[in-house]
Amino acid sequence: MILAFIEGERNPISPLCLQALTFARELAAGQGMPLEAVAFEREAGDLPGVLQRHGVSRIHRVEHPRLDDYAPEAWAKALAQLMDRARPQFVLAAATDRGNEILARVAAVKNLPMAANCIGWAPGSPPVVVRQRWGGSLLEEAALHAVPPLLTVAPHAVEVREIETQMEASLETFSPVLEEKDFRVRVVAREETHPEGVSLRTASVVVGGGRGVGSADGFRVLEELASLLGAAVGGSRVATNNGWRTHAQQIGLTGNRIAPDLYIACGISGAIQHYVGCKGSKNILVINQDREAPFFRRATHGVVGDLHEVLPALIEEIRRIKT
Amino acid sequence: MNVLVCVKRVPDPGARIELAAGDQAIETRKLGFTIGPHEECAVEEAVRLIEKLGGSATVLTLGPADAEEQLRDSMAVGADRGILLETEGDDWDPAQTAAAIVAAIRAAERQGSRFDLFLFGNESADAGGFQVGIRVAQALDLPCITGVKRLEAQANKVLARREIATGWEVYEVGLPALLTVREGLNSPRHPSFRSLMAARKKPIERSRPERDPVGLELLRLRLPPDRGTSAEMLGEGKAAVPRVIEVLKELGVLQA
Ligand SMILES: Cc1cc2nc3c(=O)[nH]c(=O)nc-3n(C[C@H](O)[C@H](O)[C@H](O)COP(=O)(O)OP(=O)(O)OC[C@H]3O[C@@H](n4cnc5c(N)ncnc54)[C@H](O)[C@@H]3O)c2cc1C
Ligand SMILES: Nc1ncnc2c1ncn2[C@@H]1O[C@H](COP(=O)(O)O)[C@@H](O)[C@H]1O
Fold first, then answer.
1. Residues of B in contact with A317 (CB under 8 A)
2. pTM for this structure?
3. Could you tell me which CATH number the domain at A205-322 has?
4. Among the CATH numbers 2.40.50.320, 3.40.50.720, 3.40.50.620, 2.60.40.420, which is that of A2-183?
5. Which end of chain A has fewer CB within 10 Å, C or N?
6. Strands B144-153 and B157-164
7. d(CA A103, CA A115)
């Protein structure tokens, strides 16, 4: 049996979680094993309906009076207890903050290896996973010397697919044995934020700046272009490290992952740690004065030139067209 | 407050990763080395805490002898001492790394050190295992909050916030505790010439760690297929503007 960890949160079930389910189902089919799921959240909408369409034959719903909000130690302990009883041959989760945290904790509790951000898998004893390093700029093939292997599935490793012939999923309640101490780490409050302006993660156009912008003041032309195009503004780590932009606006491995229709990258060289943050963009227009800048090799469109010359001229032309 | 920070020496690969012969590691002959941004923030936070609350900051790394460079870098921004768990420079899996760190912490405590706070990166820059901190916390029975991006610490407890899509989750735990942190927690300072010199005199303890059997065994590394595009060049300088406008229209970004 293959066990998949389900996250609900607000949205009934996240796309990343559905991707992990698709990955798990293909793994299960290859092994001739049934697919089961474990869920902690109560308000998860029509969970059985969704899971059935993804080939889940049994749902373990974890119930405990103290399990109201996220408590990683308690969740991991509950999952470890369920594993003792249900004896899965694989355990998977989406490589989200929670998925990674819970599986790492289970791994620590049960002294098992855990592989984060997997994109592929090959049977064998031991089984071999393909996992991402450097945000996906490098792949690692690794053997998992343990039963059951624990792995999290990298975002976009597979496309979500439902099954054609639906089956009935049985619903079972699992009541873990938990102590007060298991709740020493838990969410004690939540704070909502209402981001201003166009959000980087969902914007369809993003204007980004790097060292070539030169100063915080230098970003004004980028902001002007962005407001004309309804775009969000972001930056490289050099721009955020220099305080020209806030870290919330950083694009890259340790910043935001963006996937707009168009990313206009100005004065950015194209280091891999930056590129992994924007490689989901449909089009990348690079403006750089160095024709040898590596970013040109991964761009769809390029302009060689000083951004402080190109952008003002571009802004003027857009204004002329708009009036 | 005594803080222990764990950092990892990693290459800074620039725009293209190349593999060394044997496909077990990145070709690093032409590269510089660093620690990941999350860990830079962990070091900075430790230094701010001891500046505010007193105490000392220790920085620990498991890696080759050359990882002394990363300990010195961390001491140059204010850590007081270093612990180097010296390896041959080959890949240690996360459980092996965590076990060696746990043994080193226990040894330091036997010699009279007491740590109130343990800081890790949320994930290492190169391997991205997302687990060493959690494993150390489990072994030492410490409460552990991951992905921390805002921190308020007092002498006996911490309030930590973790960012989610809709805002923040707030956690509170008593000390001692272990936190894994993310870039954005603070803006790390740059070392001054004087602090760089001072760091050269700070103490480093070296030892050779025991190695557990491997659980997640690196077989080989490979590069993903590169979507190497050949960019359509739109021109040079201002002269490119008409073509840029056409492209913006084609992509529907600018209404014709
Ligand atoms: C573990 C790790 C994680 C990292 N995470 C991130 C991350 O999340 N995001 C990120 O961005 N970086 C990250 N980095 C840093 C990354 O490696 C690069 O150092 C960084 O992306 C470089 O930023 P840059 O392109 O702005 O600067 P540079 O590399 O210095 O490039 C500046 C470019 O601007 C051009 N230029 C200069 N003046 C002009 C002008 N007037 N007009 C036009 N072009 C001009 C230059 O030709 C050059 O190509 C990380 C590094 C590490 C080690
Ligand atoms: N070799 C190492 N030496 C010291 N600390 C490490 C080492 N490897 C990982 N860590 C710490 O554990 C965190 C998570 O690593 P990982 O589980 O590999 O993603 C890193 O950000 C570091 O703080």
1. 241-242, 245
2. 0.94
3. 3.40.50.1220
4. 3.40.50.620
5. C
6. antiparallel
7. 9
Torsion of CA A259, A261, A266, A270, to 10 degrees: 50
For residue B228, is pLDDT > 90? no
What is the pLDDT, as a whole number, of residue A47? 83
- What three-state secondary structure class fits A244? coil
Q: Is there a shared CATH topology between the A2-183 domain and the A205-322 domain?
A: yes
How many Å apart are CA B82 and CA B61, to the nearest integer? 8
DSSP annotation of A288 reads E
Contact A117 B128 (CB under 8 A): yes
Q: DSSP letter at A154?
A: P
Atom number of ligand 1 nearest to Cα A239: 26
Q: Can you list the domains of chain B with their CATH numbers?
A: 2-207 (3.40.50.620)
* Rounded Cα gap, residues B17 and A155, in angstroms: 21
pLDDT tens digits for range B132-160: 999 999 999 999 999 999 999 998 999 99
On whether ipTM exceeds 0.90, the answer is yes
